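Lecture notes, structural biology module. Today: joint structure prediction for complexes of two components.
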Amino acid sequence: MFILIVGCGRVGSSVARAMLREGHTVSALDEDPESHARLEVGLEKSWEDLGGQFTVGAGLEAEALEAAGIDQADVFIASTDGDNTNIIISQIAKRRYAVPNVIARVLDPLRAEWYARQGLQTVCPTRVAIDMLETAVRDSASRGTGGSGGAERARGGEA
Amino acid sequence: MYIIVVGAGKVGWNLARELLEKDHEVTLIESDRRRYLTVEQELEHNVSYGDASELWVLERAGIQRADMVIAVTGDDEDNMLICQVAREKYLVDQIIARVNNPRNRQHFDLLGIKPSVSATDLILRLLEHEVPEYGLVHLLDLQEEQLEIIEMLLGKDSGVTGRRVGDLHMPEGSLLISVLRAGKGFVPNADTVLEEGDEVLAVLDPGKEDELKVLFGPGGDGDVAGG
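The predicted structure, tokenised, for the full assembly:
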């Protein structure tokens, strides 16, 4: 599969490396030329030597998207640090370039949820963190390690 | 009308002030705290602090009852997103978006965000209008109606000067609608003879500009077309 990743921060670069290791064709696009270095963290060879592609440019620029190979992309991942950028470029990837699989990282749960209902596949790390924290708190409450006494333990016991 | 303006930069602030003077109800939303405090000194309760791409901020501003949302931040993605949720989630009747980078206009169009206004494009249009070397000036694009109105100045070497309007080979889907001559405009008829220095207005189907340019340009509509 040809995977285009826009936004090479911690998330984008990690996903890019993992997909490359799994044998996919990976193209990364980022405004910041320095982000190329992040792609190579922990790699034994250069990103390009391993078959990766890297383009400098903004996700909103048609030329940059095209140079990064959006026309051949099977999967498009929008993982810049801007929710609005990710939402808008994902829609461009879907509507203008007809990329079959489009995934947008959206930190704001409300925006992620509404756009998901409009048919955009969104991944919301904040939502995941909220759920995990809530679960962790409930678990510790039910284990009775919260120190708040018998009432919490009793409630945990009922659940 | 109740109008929400997003972005209290120079455009947003002045716009909010003008709209208030016209007795509209206005909420101006600004996400930068310092800018907000500056603008709040003048506009007081009409300005609200927050990031308008957060849905709860829009809801707090009363977007459900807004008649119009105008997004004029310095960020095209934000303007697109705000207008999109305003129209599609909150069913706001009218939206207006500012285009900062004219190259992003295609994205506004793709997402159906209309009308969108670009200061750069407006100035370029004015420039075209002021510099006749550009030949053909777009006066109006009626995108929904699939029509445009253009203006052309007939130079000395234009192939149509001295010719009757009735004898012109106007391309299919175009019509000469008026002639401006010596500061006065009139609607031409078939017997009107075009003169050097005339400014002619034509209405046409999109994509016919080039044919008209050839027709009205140097040596256009000569004997080849006539014969």
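Point to remember: The mean pLDDT of chain A is 92.
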